[in-house]
Every structure is written in structure tokens, then in C-alpha cells.
Specification:
Helix content is about 40%, strand content about 15%. It is an alpha/beta fold. The chain has a five-stranded mixed sheet, sandwiched between helices. Helix 13 runs antiparallel to helix 20.
Length: about 525
Amino acid sequence: MAKIAFILLCHKDPQAIIQQAQQLTATGDFIAIHFDARAKPEYFQQIQDALGDNPHVTFATKRIKCGWGAWSLVQATLYAIEAALRDFPRATHFYMLSGDCAAIKTSEYAHQYLDENDYDFIESYDYFESDWIKTGMKEERLTYRHFFNERTHKKLFYASYNLQKRFGLTRKIPEDLQIQIGSQWWCLRRPTIEAVMEMVKSRKDVMRFFRTTWIPDETFFQTLVRHLIPGDEINTRTLTFLMFTDYGMPLVFYNDHYDMLLNQDYLFARKISPDAVELKERLGKLYAAKDVEFKISGEGPSLFKFVTGRGRVGRRFANRFWETEATLGRERELMILVCKKWHVAKRMMAKIKQETNIPAIDYLFHEEHTDLPDLGGIQATIEKRTRHRRALIRMLFDYFQSNRMIICMDPASIDLLHDFYNDRSVTRALEIQCDYSDDYLTGHANRIGLAGELTPPETLARILPTIRRDMEDESDAIRDANFENYGRIRENDEMGDFMRPIMDFLSVSEDKARSIATTPHLFAD
């Protein structure tokens, strides 16, 4: 059975560290602690006094001062690994943690998971080909030598960098290494850790290289593991659940996140707020529990994106327009059928095609596989279609050799509506407002990743009213925009109420409008 040696890097809150170590070792696992040498000496003494007699606890062979983005974080990890290898010969896995981490599964579950999945769990993506780094330095992290810490010695950091850049003082990456990048929160098997430590001793050139790279905790272990271990023995993921805000800061979890954390497909989570005392206590008790069943729904990241995407007052600013200088043409008429239930709009669209000769295309800005002609690649992806939306529509008008065309659109895309209504062409919109049952909203939440088959009912009960309100707000935003040539039909209206909006939208006769209004099973789910 798996035995875990936790590698804990920490720098504050000695009482929380003591509690964390006691909880993790209570079920038979081990922990090696590196407590930052920058911290107060009495803090470390407090930890030693509380844990010194615990045979499952050891301390790094050497304590050093650590700095964000610096080699010291990797070196501190290596010192802790040395102690763990020396003192815990029965440890089969080495799991990297911080003082802000907490288990979100039972020890029983974690050990069984590692027994059933014989992999090294570490994110390792090609440094140059992947888009793991979103902003800031990329190649410069490696090709220049970084002797100073950017956060504590900013002027020296950039003076050194600019001097090297000015005189072309670049360096080569060790030829046999393919640099990888990923999260520093890994779980590695003992043979892998031993192989890494042997390489640390034998490859002085590799150590020299990484000692002066910037943020090496995201590249050092990731590169060495991929260099030493066959790819089919590496699972390129972390077992620690973490998310980041729009500003690149780790999301902090509080007491009310307990149920959500347990539903995620991870063994640990970070960062747990220092103030989340109740959450820490509940998770600590959970780790020692037996025979607990977990329903893995994994909706955490999607749910976070959904909630934060609403903004402080329920809405974020609309996307910028890329093509305000383009026009569809004064003589052209674009008709937009707006509906949240795509299958409803598609049924009406099919009937419109049958009753008129107007070219019509379904959700081209929302569905990747919408049937579109070859327009030189601009139609290839939703991203391209949206970025070049006016050019795309203009080319479709040309393709169909028509000055009238109908498209379907989701009401969430009010930025597209604004853009098309701002064009010189004539734009008309017909919104189909539908009723939304709880079953439909649950299915919608599943389709967009806010829930899954195993999402607990209590979680659904909390998010369904928000989703329903979100849909109502989208419709209200369209009405508040006061678009010209805008009509609306509602599911609960009388059939006769459909006639005038359809006639105005399509400029068709009453008979054709009646035929379209009576589309069979129009609102059926």
C-alpha cells in the first residue's frame, strides 16, 4: 500500500503547521518540513518542540531563506527531499505541499488512488510550444542569467537583465534537455525522486543552469522528471486543486467551500484561508475518516468562471469590437433570430427556410460545426468568426448572392447584436422567449460544465436560481438596449400574438407568418 512522504514548504503560522503535520501523519504517512529561515527563530522552535518526538516528522537537512521566483525554493525542496529519503525508507510517494494546502479526500481514498494509478503526477508541458506562460518573460527566463530577485531587488534584477540583453550575453540550454513547465505541486514515486536526486549530484551543468533561471520551481522538477521517466509513466496533471483569478492570483477557499472542494477530482487543495478555521477542522477530521464515498462532479473551475464572469454587479464589460471600420453594406438586411434554446430557434429556422427563399444559417457564432461554405479559412473556428464577424457576414451575403440573410444567435451575445445594429445595413431581431423548467436548467448546467451527473442536489439547488436569473437578465439587457426593428414572441403567448412580430421580422404575408407561427412542436424540449 502507498506510503506518502509529504514535502512541506512553509514560512508562517507555526500553530497551523503543527496541526497540519499532526493530521497528515496520524494515518501513518510522513512529512519533511522546510521552514523558511527568514521566519522568526521562535516560530521554528515552536514547531520543533511540538513535533520533535513524532517519528513520522523530519526536518530539512538545511534551512535557507526563500524568495518567490528564486532558486531558493527549489533548493529548499531538495533539502526536504534529502531528509525524507534518509528518514522514511518505507515512503513510496513524495507529495509536494505548502502550508496553505489541505486534504480534500480521506487518507484511505488517497492511498487507494495512488495504488491504482502507478504514475508520476506532475504537470510538464513543452516550455516553448505550450501557452502555459500567459504574460511576462518567457524565453528570457532561460536564456539570460538571473542573479537577483525581481520582487526584492527590482532595480538590480532589470539592470542585470537589460545589460545582458544589450550585449547579447545569452546562454545555451543544456543540449540534452527539453525544458518543461507546469505547476510546482507534484506527487512523484520513490524511484523517480531517487533518480532526480542522482541527477542533481551528477549533472553540475544542469544545476548551474537552473540556479540562475527565473521561477525555476515551475521548470526544474518538470524538466528532470520528463528527461528521466518514460512518458507513459507520467500523468501530466497535479493532484492539488487550485484556481487562479483574472489577475493571476491563487483563489482562496473559505468555510463555505467545503462541499465544492470534496466534489473535485483532486486529493488536496490550495489556498485555504488562514481564517477558514471551520474548513480546516472539517478537512482535518475528514482525512482520518473511513469508508467515505465521494461523488466527483468536478464543476469547480467552470462554476468559478461562471460566477466571476458576472462581475461585481452581475455583469462584466462587453468584449471589444474588432471590426468597427467594416460594413455589411447599406442595401443589405441582416435578420437575427435570438433564442436561448437553440433547438427551438433551429425548428423555426427550418420552417422559415421552407416558407421563404431567404438564406439562413444556424448558430454560426456558437457552434463549431455549423454548416458553412469555405470562405478562405475565416469560417474555420468560432474564434475567427467572432473576431472577423462583419467580414464573415459580408462574405456570406456575397456567397449567397443575396441582400437578405437570417442567422441564429444566443441572447448572451449582446455585444454581437450591438455591433451589427451599429452597422449601416438594416438589422432586424426577433427574440423567442422560452420557459425554463428545472430539468432544462439542470441539463443546461451539465452542457456548459457548471454541473455533472454526480453534482449533489444541494449544489444544483444553489446554482439553478442563478442560471435562471442570468437568462432573464440576458433578455432584459436586449430589451433595455432599445434596438430598432426588434420583436419578441413568448412561449406562453397566444398563437395570434406571434403573427405581427414574425411578419415585421421577415416582411412576409400573414399566411406565411401563420404557417411559421404554427411550427409543429416548436417549444418541445
